[in-house]
Amino acid sequence: MPFIPGWDVSGVVEAVAPGVTRFAPGDEVYGLVHFPWRGGGYAEYVTAPPRHLAHKPASLTHAEAAALAAGHDGLPGACASSFVFG
């Protein structure tokens, strides 16, 4: 498979897996997906575990939220140490 770069994302949930209660279709979310491994954030559609995402603040654009995710330790799953040590 080709490698698709990118980890920082922001967008609208299209669908959720059975049992996911934290998000619903239509929710605006942002986060770092699969960091620091396979990425895939620059694709048109992205799949991610719910723990890699958070609800996007209404006051931010999607571009601002994606940029915030890239440098925000408080976002669930966004800190590299949470993957290495957590």
Helices, strands, pairings?
Layout: E1 8-12, E2 28-32, E3 53-55, H1 62-70, H2 80-84
Antiparallel strand pairs: 1-2, 2-3
Quick tags:
86 residues; alpha+beta; three-stranded antiparallel sheet; disordered C terminus
Brief overview:
The protein is globular, with a radius of gyration of 12 Å.
Describe this structure in words.
- The structure is a single chain.
- The protein is of the alpha+beta class and 86 residues long.
- The chain has helices at 62-70, 80-84, and strands at residues 8-12, 28-32, 53-55.
- Strands 1-2-3 form a three-stranded antiparallel β-sheet, with helices on one face.
- It is globular.
- The N and C termini lie far apart (29 Å).
Helices and strands: which structural class? alpha+beta
As residue ranges, the low-confidence spans are: 76-86
Q: Could you spell the SSE succession in H and E letters?
A: EEEHH
Biggest sheet layout: 3 strands, antiparallel
Shape: globular
Classify the beta-strand content into a percent band.
Answer: 15-25%
Q: Care to count the β-strands?
A: 3
Query: What is the C-alpha radius of gyration, as a whole number of Å?
Result: 12 Å
C-alpha end-to-end distance: 29 Å
Query: Average pLDDT, to the nearest integer?
Result: 80
Helix content: 10-25%
Total helix count? 2
How would you write the strand order of the largest sheet?
1-2-3
